[in-house]
Amino acid sequence: RKLPYDRCIRNVYHGILKSKIIPACEDVRHIVFRAQLFVNHYTPSLEIPPKHINHQNFWYTICQLIINKCVTNSTSLPEGLLDRWDAFKQRHRSIIYVRDIASGTSQCLTEACVQLSTIYTNHTVENFEAKARKYVCYRIQNIFKLMGRQKVQKVADYTYQQVCLGTPVRPESTMFTMEKKRIVDETFLSLRNIIPSQVSLKTLFASPSSFIPCLSYILSQYEAEQEAHHTYDVRRLPLPGLFPLLPNPSLH
């Protein structure tokens, strides 16, 4: 339950408490924003994204780098990150938060790091199936241009389960012939080979970062279509929209 500030704090302490809260919130907001900028730059460049991004200790260590403090828990960082950080810091000097943070802000920062680890976990877990299904459906519509929407959906359901190592139920043979099955299998083989394990809420929560390469592959396919498109190209389907691979940083 939320309580209005004026009701839970005595009037005599309003000004004193606000003078502490506002600077602490500003500090945490700027530090977290910079931490996300670096992590979002660093993670997609790796062939295998680190599982650390889903843990509080990783984010707290990144925040220590942002405020130019000595790292107190280097084991929470993946190998090679400090070298990447040094190179990034040299190119972007403003990534360092030079302002002295208010006393007690570290407790607020710890809570912010818990939220960051949850946000980055949920971003993959909650979006993976929708992004993968949309990609599968889009590709099938482009392959079988004369296939009706309901039939496309049935083939897409089968293909999604096959790609995600589930239990696919093949549509009726009159609609989905062996030749069509072969085309679909070859089209999605690259994506299937990236899937680390059967896709379920349990496996996504257990290792969300291991599914990021799959989303990265889908995004790269969309980007390639965007780049190959010309203004006057005639398309049956609109260009697929791009999506953020990781949560977007915000100062709000």
Give a quick set of tags describing it.
single chain, 252 residues, mainly alpha, 10 helices
Main sheet record: none
Query: What fraction, in percent, of the residue positions are helical?
Result: 55-70%
Radius of gyration: 23 Å
SSE pattern, N- to C-terminal: HHHHHHHHHH
Tally of extended strands? Answer: 0
Report how far the terminal alpha carbons are from each other: 22 Å
Overall structural class, as computed from helix and strand content, comes to mainly alpha
So how many helices?
A: 10
Relative strand content: under 5%
Instruction: Name the overall outline.
Output: elongated
Parts with pLDDT < 50 across at least 5 consecutive residues = none
The overall average pLDDT, rounded, is: 89
